[in-house]
Amino acid sequence: xxxxxxxxPSDEDRIAKGHKLxxxxxxxxxxxxxxxxxxxxxxxxxxxxxxxxxxxxLELAVACAEAGExxxxxxxxxxxxxxxxxxxxxxxAARRALREFRSKAKxxxxxxxxxxxxxxxxxxxxxxxMAQVAGGAVGGVEGDDPIFSLPPDHPRVRFALMLERYGxxxxxxxxxxxxDFAKAAMTLExxxxxxxxxxxAPFTSREPLARWFRAQAALLSEQPAxxxxxxxxMHRELGGPQDMAGQNSAATLAGALVQTKQSEEALVxxxxxxxxxxxxxxxxxxxxxxxxxLGKDEEADELARRIxxxxxxxxxxxxxxxxxxxRAGKRMQAMQALEAGLVTNCTSGKCGSxxxxxxxxxxxxxxxxxxxxxxxxxxxxVTRIQRNVPQPGWFDGYLDALTARNAGATDxxxxxADLSANLKPGDRRLELVHKAFAKxxxx
Length: 443
What we know:
This protein is an all-alpha fold. It is built from 26 helices and 2 strands.
């Protein structure tokens, strides 16, 4: 890309950069790159970026649930749903998996909390329901509670239910902000982040924790710079990152910093947070992703390897390892990482896990086909991709062309011409075509 293209990128330049960012797994940056570009090519980048953001959060939701971090899991599910179409099958599958985790956790908790045969005060207390405890004395009259005696659709009732995700040290401070804050927060919950961002502004001077909600509104309304401002201010005013419904606010700040092209600063934030919470899965995953954006592939690969040893269900880390290894020329090791991820994340449909990961399948099929390895496995992967992709894109055509090349097809010149049509110099996809079909191009 020349200096003029760098200063004043054309739509084609932005689309090409968007595809490159997709290859790197930088979903949010890819989406932002084509935010003002129209047309089918830009729509494809946006669709893949949103799918990537959805899948990343689904993977983290399942991984957090597996680690017993149910509040963080719920936050990631909420984000995943915001990037998905209504009725998305992967969202439904992930929710089913989380229900299984919650059911298991409740059974374990019930066993732990069961009253002892000897009875006593603690045993009796174990038989009370949460509603009875919330209402005061056992046997209290329903409706005595000043919040839950309100109509079920009242914003303060819905807000109180939302506050159950937060700790006892945070929820009372947010509740004390009153009905107007509850309405503003619920505006965000209802899917109107831009409106919520404005409505939440008056509360940040009264309570630093309100900045968390405003930062969420900023991110969801594609204002990452504003999210950085809010989260940095919250950390200054409260003396550091906070556990917000099971999610470390440092991870959210790091993500916003990456979106504003401040990856070095993001790494500093994550390193500081990890000193306080070295076992935090979300912080570790974000650190690996930031290391990759900084070009520190060896460190990113090693950290991702340690993460999957700790929690094997984070599919994004297998894909990160594969990307790093491909760039290092370690293609066989990249294939092994992707195979491990696809096998570990059960896809039989009988274990409550996520469905087949299309992106991982595409990348693994590409490597096999380009290197003319494992033809039966490659064919299986292509078939599964076709079953899971309602509308094939350019990459699927590339896999088809590789399959045809390996089978000795005679129409390769036309296939290569179709793949190359409308691709500009510097486009990552054009580089793939030139390398894979060098003989056909020179013929």
